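Example (one chain per record):
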Amino acid sequence: MLKLYGGARSRASIVQWYLEELSLPYEFVLLDMAVGEHQQPEYLAINPMGKVPALVDDTFKIWESGAILLYLAEKYDKPEVSFEERSIWSQWVLFANSTLATGLFIEASREKDVPKLLTALSEILNKTPYILGSEFTVVDVAVGSILAYVPMMLPIDLSPYPIILDYIKRMNDRTAFKNSIGKR
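Predicted structure:
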């Protein structure tokens, strides 16, 4: 069985969302970060960086939310996809975890980055319901989770981006989202 390690209010909820989407059985191991459970030797053997999330699949260990999402997509969701399609998934997952998250969460870059990022995403989502087309993918978990955090945590006015608001609502309405990020 898969074991997902995370802390309260951590990016483990992003991985949990995808596990729920895939209907994979897993155990969620909640680490008490306040008392340093993520710095104990048992956990450092899984992730030597002492960060969450981390995933253990039998004897295989992987950490970093984006890497875990891609691992799950390739192994359990669509193992038959082409190298090029996997590369596009990687492009978008890395975009979500670095460019989009930095643009939204880092206050110093927010004023410059938000209009550029959300306008470009709006143009994409104006043509199709999901980032890569008509089908929900791991990319939507990566991008959708970062965007879903905006109304929950950030002082960003999304009213100029109604397409983004619609996308966030579609993500929030997914049962798997409600069973993971939506519980927080």
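Caption: The domain at 2-77 is CATH 3.40.30.10 (Glutaredoxin).
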